[in-house]
Design a protein that fits this description.
Glucose-fructose oxidoreductase domain-containing protein 1; nine-stranded mixed sheet; Gfo/Idh/MocA_oxidrdct_glycsds; alpha/beta; single chain; oxidoreductase activity; NAD(P)-bd_dom_sf; nucleotide binding
């Protein structure tokens, strides 16, 4: 039994997501939009029977058992926590809330309801090229996985902004290349290597503050360029450059993973590798096996997509499709709608992973402001909303004693 789906959001991700869900056999029962008109228009376009602008109307529908949260980030934590509390499975788009405190609420809710699916849509984890890259690293293609030296990430793409001023234009509301693209990179690095970020250094810039359609009194504050370095806990150094200045809906992504033995690289959706020449005295057999004068083709992506988008890059769409297939495999073997098996979705990013990404992004923003290396600090307790008042109460309590 596949669960009924409720979708929160009416943007480009929802319009790609719904056809994929139907293709895999899921029934999309309801959609939520910020306005009733928006929800109605999208419901008609995607042929969804129920639409609303009230969050609870979707969550309380009996035939909705799995929710996809692909709306503005300021609602991610609120809907995720509420959905888990009602007993619904949750797939939440990146980022996990607007800040680490919101991500922590999501983590706590997921821990409180461990029998429910709670994953973040870091879809690159499911892209076959990265699945193969991870396996190559674990199998020792580049030697000991703990002795990787460098990961170099370059992403060049068009603007992330739309035709109107909305949350995508505002850094504090979850817009910008660090949140929308960098979060995938940060998560992917940990997924591929199994290492955690310890310290960061970053530079964030907003070069385009106005466009032909977004101008006037409101300025764009979301960064359209960022470059950062991540120091991992086992010595790996990560460098990343994310650039939103290319014209049109183009997308170029190149991710190198290097060691003293050679490198692996994913270009688009294809995986290549090359090893440095080994002295024949040491390993004649290995010398014969691998072509050292050119890159070795490890995986080539030839699969076509049934649904494309001019806004969302192809690797993200393909990863999303693979993630939906994994969810289907998780639900299909069981007879009850709320039951599932864990194995197919073990590769997915958990809410804990989402919090770690959020902590890394917070450290990068601080580093960009201060101009120095910053340690990543993971919240374990919710921050005090009024520290001055709490200090006064503590002093009063001490004086009364």
């Amino acid at each position: 039994m596949l669960p009924g789906i409720g979708v929160f959001g009416t943007g480009s991700v929802a319009k790609v997501l719904v056809p994929f869900l139907r293709e895999k056999g899921f029934s999309v029962e309801a959609i939520w939009g910020t306005t009733l008109q928006e929800a109605e228009n999208t419901a008609k376009e995607l042929k969804i029977p129920f639409f609303t602008n009230k969050i609870d109307d979707v969550l309380l529908k009996k035939n909705v058992n799995l929710v996809f949260i692909v709306c503005a980030p300021y609602l991610h934590a609120q809907i995720s926590v509420k959905a888990l509390g009602i007993g619904k499975h949750v797939v939440c788009d990146k980022p996990a809330g607007l800040c680490q405190a919101e991500a922590l609420k999501m983590v706590r809710a997921a821990q409180y309801y461990p029998t429910l699916i709670s994953i973040i849509n870091h879809s690159l984890r499911f892209l076959p090229a990265f699945s193969h890259m991870r396996k190559c690293i674990q199998d020792g293609y580049l030697g000991n996985p703990d002795e990787l030296t460098l990961m170099d990430v370059r992403v060049q793409m068009g603007s992330l902004l739309g035709d109107t001023y909305n949350w995508l234009c505002d850094d504090t509301m979850g817009g910008g290349t660090l949140t929308l693209v960098g979060s995938h990179v940060i998560d992917l690095v940990s997924f591929l290597t199994g290492q955690k970020v310890v310290k960061v250094h970053g530079v964030l810039r907003t070069f385009v503050e106005e466009t032909a359609k977004v101008n006037g009194i409101r300025k764009i504050t979301a960064p359209d360029f960022c470059t950062f370095q991540l120091q991992m806990d086992k010595g790996l150094l990560v460098t990343a450059t994310l650039n939103n200045h290319l014209p049109g809906p183009c997308f170029n992504q190149e991710i190198y993973c290097c060691s003293k033995k050679g490198y692996l690289v994913v270009r688009g959706g294809d995986l290549y590798g090359k090893l440095h020449k080994i002295s024949p005295k040491n390993s004649q057999e290995e010398e014969c096996k691998r072509p050292h004068d050119r890159e070795e083709v490890i995986y080539v992506d030839v699969e076509d997509l049934s649904c494309t988008s001019s806004v969302i890059p192809k690797p993200y769409i393909k990863g999303l499709c693979k993630m939906i297939s994994a969810l289907k495999e998780a639900f299909l073997p069981v007879k009850e709608q709320m039951d599932w098996v864990k194995e197919p979705v073990t590769a997915a990013a958990t809410f804990e992973d989402g919090q770690r990404v959020q902590a890394t992004m917070e450290a990068l923003r601080k580093s960009s402001e201060d101009g120095c290396w910053t340690t990543v600090q993971l919240l374990t307790e919710p921050p005090d909303p009024n520290p001055a008042l709490s200090a006064a109460v503590r002093r009063t309590a001490i004086s009364l004693q």
